[in-house]
């Protein structure tokens, strides 16, 4: 039989009959494929594996770090500095001089490159997690023999055998299915196992979760056995499509990464402009100064670059991740910490994230009565109180409804250490404490009505049925003649369509159109209250119907009533939503539930108002991208959506310049999580794939944890801005001081590249790390999010750095001019130079200590702040001051750094000048405070 490409029926194998599928793929159900045909197909279509595309090699990632414009400039400076040092060594001593400035710069460049590599080289493990979902072994039929092979050797057209416990390794069309049930929750998000059928042919537009005649790679057989024809392998499977979507999502740089790139470009341009002005202008003034000006320009270039900034930012983000873990948020990628502070929209699932995932029955409705259930959680304490006067008739209806809820139920209610819990589906489990509140004994009921058969839940039918033996002597208003009772539970709409009768009191009556409309009205009323609604019905049987006869057996049923179940919102969620609102963050609910239920829950916790528009997945399907973009700014609740819709919603929000956090738990949520600025995986219910595709994992699956992590992100971003203005303000002062020396006719460079590196790495770095743990202000969640397109210099930070840099330069230049004249009494030129340059070096370093203390707050004076809120800043200032003094007074360090022993008088002058920077910053706060008061 000639093999024809599966493209002949693209993506519609569920619409093909068994014979059509076998013919299209050239396969024989009795013999399978021949070995020759297998080899030919493997050559044509490759192996059954998920393939990685466009993945960067580790070496390429490392090399990319040195394409950073600031590091390139430092490398150029190191080379030029080495050439000058070696050349001067030959001129003076005719011997090779160790270029310590160049060597120090090179070490800094390499360390920064390694730091960037470590952050960026973390391999994307989402695809690896997907690969782990494929089965390592599979049993196939080839040349008439059953044999076990490795799953990568599977080809399209293979006949595979399925049995309970097997993990499916390729997509296939079922040829046989004997009580076959498959757990597809990782792929479709549906928790219930799907009952598979081989003989059915489904419409082309059948949803993925309803394709009961297909099996999919990565899913697992839970019950029964079957035979399938492989229709897709590797990247062509549904799992492969998710892998393709994951790899096609482009990882956008985080706001912080964009701002740091922008900062680096601006600093380099500033350095080039300054070097050009100083070297060009000075050479025109006096050509003999060219060599001296080159040295000055090298020091200026090193002073411009904040060499310690990348390390400080990395450590700050790492410390932030540790604090977030204590708040149940596990950060998987460091830059995500800062991105959280910029989040403008949080898209959250409902069940388990906004709600407790503890189903509690709120009430029941039968034809003649309504009853309200009291109690909390799965604890059976409480009662069932009728809203009207209870009669014998209403009591009979309610008892039958409670009985049905116990019999058509696979959950188990249990008590451990005084706490009530469940095993099984939460929705089913909610019916058990309800029955106890209504007076039933669970053990006695199950003993009296033993189960003898079932039609399992199916996402297509949206219901399940069980068969129990009907005891001869019972106290319920049931027909006495049948031997068996079928109880059906599920979607009210799907069950009501199959009912012909209704239970009224102790009798059964015909279900009229008027009664049907009344039941539909009751269902909508319960859904509008945010309740998940179940319908129950029953039917008597003399003999058990055959297996697989759901469509014909689930007919002519007797309607019992409705059960309204609430998944209560988490108590802390309403406060978290209010916090979001005050912080300028928009919370959005995205759920697969009924739109009335979703809207009611959303309204109760403040995400929307009653009557607001709810967008459903069916409506999204019909929308163009442009129409969806217009809607996302108005709609805060999305219902009946699929993971594909989530991806579209995220992209639409991002095109509206929103920074989006998105939650998810299933494999098919992974593309949307990766597309979002912050992908948030569920730590309890989430799959490995979603966790690997995410930036953050919620250890408690709680929406409030996202808000807490966002608050932490804002604090971290505020601290990053704080130490950036501290570091760069000092750097500006250094650059101006260095540039002024030749213009003032001073014979020497006030700071060597090595001394500048010391200031940028140690004198700046240690206090900057201390500033990184500064506690956040009380109003951190009462401000709007940082706009993604805002520069790092926004909100006055740039002007602040320029002001402080100018003041620092003025103080340093004044001291430099005085020190140059004061130390000119020395006859030896190098002693003179090292003495006044040491005073400038010391003043700049100590001035930064005062600046670090003052910069802790933009508005509060240092005297007004509790020093114990950040003891690290005081420790850092003390340690850095001691280290600076060691450079002056310890001989080996003094010789290496080119400093001079200062007298106490000279040191006191340096301390006094440096203290002026602290005074200036504090005075700025006072002036700003009076200005704001005058405006208000």
Automatic annotation (TrEMBL):
InterPro entries: ATPase_P-typ_cation-transptr_C, ATPase_P-typ_cation-transptr_N, ATPase_P-typ_cyto_dom_N, ATPase_P-typ_P_site, ATPase_P-typ_TM_dom_sf, ATPase_P-typ_transduc_dom_A_sf, ATPase_P-type_domA, Cation_transp_ATPase_P-type. It is found in: Cell membrane. Residues 12-86 form the Cation-transporting P-type ATPase N-terminal domain. The chain crosses the membrane at residues 66-87, 102-118, 267-285, 297-319, 723-744, 756-776, 797-820, 840-859, 871-890, 902-923. Coiled coil: none annotated. It comes from the Bacteria. It is a multi-pass membrane protein. Keywords: ATP-binding, Cell membrane, Membrane, Nucleotide-binding, Translocase, Transmembrane, Transmembrane helix. PANTHER family: CATION TRANSPORTING ATPASE, SODIUM/POTASSIUM-TRANSPORTING ATPASE SUBUNIT ALPHA. Belongs to the cation transport ATPase (P-type) (TC 3.A.3) family. Type IIA subfamily. This is Cation-translocating P-type ATPase. It comes from Candidatus Synechococcus calcipolaris G9. The lineage of its organism: Bacteria, Bacillati, Cyanobacteriota, Cyanophyceae, Synechococcales.
